[in-house]
Amino acid sequence: MLRVAVPNKGALSVASAEILSEAGYKQRSDSKKLTLVDAENGVEFFYLRPRDIALYVADGTLDIGITGRDLLRDSGANATELRPLGFGRSRFFFAGPAGRYASLADLHGLRIATSYVGVVQAYLDEHGIDATVTRLDGAVETSIQLGVADVIADVVETGSTLRQAGLATFGESLLDSEAVLIGRPDDERTVEQAGALRVFRRRVEGVLVARSYVMMDYDIAETDVAAATAAAPGIESPTISPLQREGWVAVRVMVPRAGAQRLMDELYDLGARGILMTEIHACRL
Ligand SMILES: Nc1ncnc2c1ncn2[C@@H]1O[C@H](COP(=O)(O)OP(=O)(O)OP(=O)(O)O)[C@@H](O)[C@H]1O
Ligand SMILES: O=P(O)(O)OC[C@H]1O[C@H](OP(=O)(O)OP(=O)(O)O)[C@H](O)[C@@H]1O
Ligand SMILES: [Mg+2]
């Protein structure tokens, strides 16, 4: 049975379970449940703290998992990013009392509080900055007010937590993060495991493609097909079917969701009519 790690709570948990459900896997109905067997699909899910997931995957206890790129990096675990998943996006910044610090050079000799010691220390080492890093579990923003740190380094999404604490970022983002699918780099597995893993990855891929593409259908005169299919070539190749109306065809093609409205305008200008856009719920390419 394939053993899959899923965030049990926090910023990544709901969207992770959504992807897995859309991929046809059973998901827990009770958020207190920590494991779940989907016997029909040969998968066992383990709901774990996202921070621990890279460790379980790296040491082979679990086969594949979902976590944040920042947490993977922070863990230093020998797990590899297989695919970004398009949710849980965040950036990672140093921050201090608004207006007090301006650049990374200001970090020398300061006390930095963070839950991401691995990421922060690696950055300081790389830039030759000598500062003291203190690990806190969360709510790091308050550590400055409490006098235990001069600056913090933390995840920033909307920035509202920092603003409310009277803090502001300075310097560049240390890393851009999002939820990622992770696995082991040295994939030595039984044939059965490798097959199950391939199916799992293909299913997740299918959900992500279905989310980022839509189906476009239109009718067009045969003389204008070449121009229209050049504007929307699809992934493989558009499907072209004859219409009862002499000299006209129906075209069906997958197009990226982003820019689909603009493409409809363009196809219309090229002579397409009856242009329809529909959702794709799942696919295997
Ligand atoms: N607004 C956000 N707050 C926190 N993490 C976020 C946010 N948006 C995206 N993330 C990502 O979610 C992951 C952190 O997940 P989570 O919030 O579950 O961890 P945690 O802070 O250790 O747990 P918790 O807050 O439940 O104690 C990281 O990959 C982070 O980049
Ligand atoms: O930029 P924002 O949209 O405000 O989001 C970022 C904040 O959210 C996270 O905290 P979380 O709620 O996970 O609490 P924690 O610090 O205890 O982990 C993170 O640590 C920041 O504090
Ligand atoms: Mg958190």
UniProtKB/TrEMBL annotation:
Coiled coil: none annotated. GO terms for biological process: L-histidine biosynthetic process. InterPro entries: ATP-PRT_HisG_long, ATP_PRibTrfase_cat, ATP_PRibTrfase_CS, ATP_PRibTrfase_HisG, HisG_C, N-reg_PII-like_a/b, N-reg_PII/ATP_PRibTrfase_C. It is an enzyme of class 2 (transferase). SUPFAM superfamilies: GlnB-like, Periplasmic binding protein-like II. One of its GO terms (molecular function) is ATP phosphoribosyltransferase activity. Pathway: Amino-acid biosynthesis; L-histidine biosynthesis; L-histidine from 5-phospho-alpha-D-ribose 1-diphosphate: step 1/9. GO terms for cellular component: cytoplasm. PANTHER family: ATP PHOSPHORIBOSYLTRANSFERASE, ATP PHOSPHORIBOSYLTRANSFERASE ATP-PRTASE. NCBIfam families: hisG (TIGR00070), HisG_C-term (TIGR03455). HAMAP family: HisG_Long. Catalyzes the condensation of ATP and 5-phosphoribose 1-diphosphate to form N'-(5'-phosphoribosyl)-ATP (PR-ATP). Has a crucial role in the pathway because the rate of histidine biosynthesis seems to be controlled primarily by regulation of HisG enzymatic activity. This is ATP phosphoribosyltransferase. The gene is hisG.
